[in-house]
Amino acid sequence: MSDFPLSVTAAATAILALMYVYMTLQIGLHRKNTKIALGDNGDAAFAKKIRGHANAAEQIPLGLILIGLNEAMNSAPTAMALAALLVVGRISHAIHFFGKDKPLGFRAYGMLLTLLSHLLGAIGLLLGLIL
């Protein structure tokens, strides 16, 4: 990696940003093709995609903040583990919402990995502050 002090955070951010752009484009294209400007117009499949997109917007920022702070306070290996959990979790979660007929397990394991990344990131920060 480069000499940039938060290279793990930067890599995770780039990967998740590409995924988020893909999700945003899928929502936008569906709106364009169906002429749905607001809401989901009762389309359950579209509502599912909107919810998956919103969940990414809710979960990714906290995860990246925790990765960045752990990388700055602790070490790149800690940040790498958190980033792996977050990236795999968010991709799994997105597969359920944006894939065709994907099992609920993708969503459940995706959230489990995401929350595990958040929890371990918070613990890492607290330990870094008190030790």
Describe the structure.
The longest helix has 30 residues. The protein has a single domain, classed as Membrane associated eicosanoid/glutathione metabolism-like domain (Four Helix Bundle (Hemerythrin (Met), subunit A), Up-down Bundle), CATH 1.20.120.550. By secondary structure, it is mainly α. The mean pLDDT is 94. It is elongated, with a radius of gyration of 16 Å. 82% of the residues lie in helices and 0% in strands.
Based on Cα principal axes, name the global outline.
elongated
* Biggest beta-sheet profile: none
Backbone CA Rg:
16 Å
**Poorly predicted ranges (pLDDT <50, ≥5 residues)?**
none
Oligomeric state: single chain
| Number of discrete helical segments | 4
The helix/strand series, from N terminus to C terminus, equals HHHH
Q: Could you name the CATH topology?
A: Four Helix Bundle (Hemerythrin (Met), subunit A)
Binned, the helix content reads: over 70%
Main CATH class: Mainly Alpha
Count of beta strands: 0
Distance between the termini: 28 Å
